[in-house]
Write a structure and sequence with these properties.
Number of helices: 28
Number of domains: 5
CATH architecture of the largest domain: 3-Layer(aba) Sandwich
Structural class: alpha/beta
Radius of gyration: 30 Å
Number of strands: 22
Strand order of the largest sheet: 16-19-20-14-21-22
Length: 751
């Protein structure tokens, strides 16, 4: 019998504290409890699922987590007798009885309050937990799922009280909602989310307002229809609406319409024409949010104000860059000062004054290497100036043909996608380009990645609508390398994330001094009692709460920020304690561990991605998005791969200097050289130029986008007459002397 795609893992598991000299059993389940219920122990479920991927039904395997993978909890899990099952088969219940697990979120009967409540509700209808689901009246099932209006009576024998116990029952669905909204564990929320799906309200059809409010119209539109329009369409409607009003309406609306048009024009000026007014703020990128605030400020007409913007060009196509620069100049011309932290070439060339900080990063940076006009900067020799003058360039693409295999996605129609088919040649560096809002993220992040994640890791994320996918057998895993933080707490750092800290601890454990004292690996962890400084709990600092002021952090008076107690710090390798090692930069550590192959291999990859300036023990909360992303890449590089991995990166150059982009691209090229496939969503022309294969989306953003305009090598796409990317790509190629010969009229490899 064919199983559904939503698979749930059932396993018997045991949790051990593995930090002491012997493993102490912390928790264990009864057989067949879903693994997703492990929420409080910090278990990395993704890691579990990766390891489970190759296990056959009924096959036995051991799963052990490194302490750092367990988000600071020093625990490991061992899983026995794994059985892959599904709760539903062909739309029917796995079990016919609630007692046997017919209510999927609850599983099989347990001696718990919720089952007592359900049993009490069923008794009212002359049913029991062992009554077949199909024989239970609909009214009873509604009460179980959505709650009972009456209090439920629980027999005193069950609750071991002198009288019957009366309790409210809100229903299984309410319980799931509570877990999703209020649950502290992300795994618990993920577990609850799999049973709930959002759908359009049948009453208002997604318009959010009642029929009375929707019955009011201006010309031919109600307020919900206007909010659904993209800004370009709305601006066109506003231009015409005055012609469809009577004299009285026109008199009332004139000034209001003028104000609305002005505000929308400000949003259009900063390149947000593809947005609609009802777009949820949570779905906006950082750059989009910043540009909305910028539009607000332009509209305020304030003077003598200092504006500070950090990377406002994030997620912006080259076409819209000019509009953004014009908007910033408008602010300046009003009499304001505008300070922009930016790496964009056009932004630098349009600046009145440039401050260049360097010369390099980390310990070798922190100096003002130049300040002055753009013209003056062109006579200097800083790294930034070298790239602006063209003395330094990112290398040209390698034009790989790939391995001849394709991953083909058919019938993509999520958001603004126009039922498109797209093929990705495997073994290539693939760039997905197009103006903001053209459908790049919808196609890759919301359609392709969830499909692959579901296929390989049984992910619960639902892909956008599509017809079919071909070529899954040609890849063995997918990795999404985003810019999200590598850790949520200061206890997480590059050493723990990459796994090199476990190797460093093992090195210290094997030292004669540590063996004499009987130290185990846990002794050298700042998360575990024994080796850490107990005054600060291994934090290295103490938080002093201030009334009416922000809390301040001061170094711990006992360990002075070293995190460990005196006995642990007495164990030294080449004169360095474990705290001294964590305080090293990656560059220093590469020299220090040059004769320790296991450690060197992992930290060398961090150096290779251009992060030699960060410290091994630097809290992950202090790393930028670009730094976090490159650490993830370094971790992937250090692993032994099969050459059949698909990597996905969304605008990896955000916040990166020209030199950092060069280093990043070298890393991506290495991944592709090993046979892997890398898909990058990007606007940066230096990166696009290096692609083996480009897929250009457009022609515009929003409703006017969602099509594949051209696909092929950079030279082929540059010859195309469709969309905006070819024009800018051609100019970039001419500047770097690698332009194609002549245009081809837009017929190149059109999809």
């Amino acid at each position: 019998m064919e199983q559904s795609t939503n698979k749930f893992i059932r396993a018997e598991y045991k949790l051990y504290d593995v930090t002491d000299s012997k493993a102490e059993l912390l928790e264990e389940t009864k057989p067949n409890r879903p693994f997703e219920f492990i929420s409080g122990m910090g278990i990395a479920i993704d890691e579990f699922e990766k390891q489970l991927a190759g296990i056959q039904e009924g096959e036995r395997f051991d799963f052990v987590l490194e302490p750092e993978q367990a988000y600071g909890e020093h625990v490991a899990a061992r899983v026995f007798d794994v059985e892959k099952t599904t709760f539903f088969r062909n739309g029917k219940f796995d079990s016919e009885y609630i007692y046997e697990g017919a209510i999927v979120p609850l599983g099989k009967y347990k001696n718990q309050m919720i089952f007592w409540q359900i049993d009490a509700i069923l008794k009212k209808y002359d049913c029991t937990l062992k009554t077949k689901i199909e024989d239970i009246p609909d009214d009873a099932l509604n009460e179980i799922l959505y709650g009972s209006l009456e209090t439920v009576r629980i027999d005193k024998e069950l609750v071991h009280t002198s009288s019957d116990y009366f309790v409210d029952f809100d229903g299984v669905v309410k319980y799931l909602h509570d877990v999703m909204e209020n649950g502290e564990s992300s795994n618990g929320q993920k577990w609850a989310d799999q049973f709930l799906a959002e759908c359009v309200c049948p009453e208002c059809k997604g318009q959010k307002l009642n029929q009375e409010a929707l019955s009011y119209r201006i010309w031919d539109k109600n307020i919900s229809q206007l909010a659904n329009m993209d800004l370009v369409e709305l601006r066109e409607w506003l231009n015409e609406v005055g012609n469809h009003m009577d004299d009285q309406q026109r008199q009332i609306a004139t000034e209001i319409l003028k104000e609305i048009r002005t505000r929308i024009d400000f949003l259009l000026e900063v390149g947000l024409d593809y947005l609609s007014l009802n777009r949820q703020a949570a779905t906006l990128s950082g750059g989009e949010s910043q540009r909305i605030r910028l539009a607000t400020q332009i509209g305020s007409q304030l003077v003598n104000v200092l504006y500070i913007l950090d990377e406002p060009s994030i997620g912006l196509h080259q076409r819209d860059n000019d509009r953004l620069i014009r908007s910033l100049k408008e602010l300046r011309d009003l009499g304001n000062t505008v300070i922009v932290v930016e790496h964009d070439r056009d932004m630098m060339l349009n600046a009145d004054y440039i401050v260049d900080i360097g010369p390099k990063a980390g310990r070798k940076g922190g100096e003002v290497v130049f300040q002055g006009t753009v013209e003056e900067m062109m006579h200097t020799n800083t790294i930034t100036a070298q790239y602006l003058k063209g003395e330094q360039q990112l290398q040209k693409g390698r034009h790989r043909k790939g391995n001849g295999l394709l991953l083909t996605l058919r019938g993509c129609r999520g958001n603004n996608l126009k039922n498109i088919d797209v093929s990705f040649p495997l073994g290539c560096l693939i760039l997905v380009t197009g103006v903001s809002g053209s459908g790049k993220s919808t196609m890759i992040n919301e359609t392709l990645y969830p499909i692959l994640s579901q296929h390989f890791y049984r992910s619960l994320q639902k892909p956008m609508p599509y017809d079919s996918i071909e070529g899954l057998e040609h890849i063995d895993k997918v990795v999404n390398v985003d810019q999200s933080p590598i850790g949520r707490t200061p206890r997480s750092n590059p050493a723990t994330y990459t796994g090199v800290f476990a190797d460093i601890r093992s090195l210290f454990v094997n030292l004669p001094e540590a063996q004499i004292r009987g130290y185990k690996p846990g002794r050298f962890s700042f998360n575990v009692k024994g080796g850490r400084c107990e005054t600060c709990g291994g934090n290295g600092y103490k938080t002093i709460e201030m009334n009416f002021l922000p809390d301040i952090q001061v170094p711990c008076e006992t360990c002075h920020g070293k995190r460990y107690n005196r006995e642990t710090l007495e164990v030294r390798f080449k004169g360095k304690s474990i705290a001294d090692v964590l305080d090293m930069t990656i560059n220093q550590a590469v020299e220090f561990f040059e004769n320790v192959p296991d450690i060197l291999r992992k930290i060398k990859t961090i150096q290779d991605v251009g992060l030699g300036y960060i410290k091994l023990g630097q809290p992950s909360t202090t790393l930028s998005g670009g730094e976090s992303q490159r650490i993830k890449l370094a971790t992937e590089l250090s692993k032994k791969d099969t050459g059949k991995t698909l990597y996905i990166l969304d605008e990896p150059t955000t916040g990166l200097h020209f030199e950092d982009i060069r280093i990043l691209m070298d890393v991506l090229q290495k991944l592709v050289d090993r046979g892997n496939t890398v898909i990058v969503i990007e606007h940066n022309l230096d990166v696009i130029r290096q692609a083996d294969y480009i897929i250009d989306m457009g022609p515009e953003g929003g409703r006017k986008g969602g099509e594949v305009l051209s696909a092929g090598t950079p030279e082929e796409v540059a010859k195309s007459k469709k969309g905006f990317t070819p024009k800018f790509l051609l100019e970039e190629m001419k500047r770097n002397s690698d332009a194609p010969d002549k245009p081809c009229g837009g017929s190149c490899a059109d999809a």
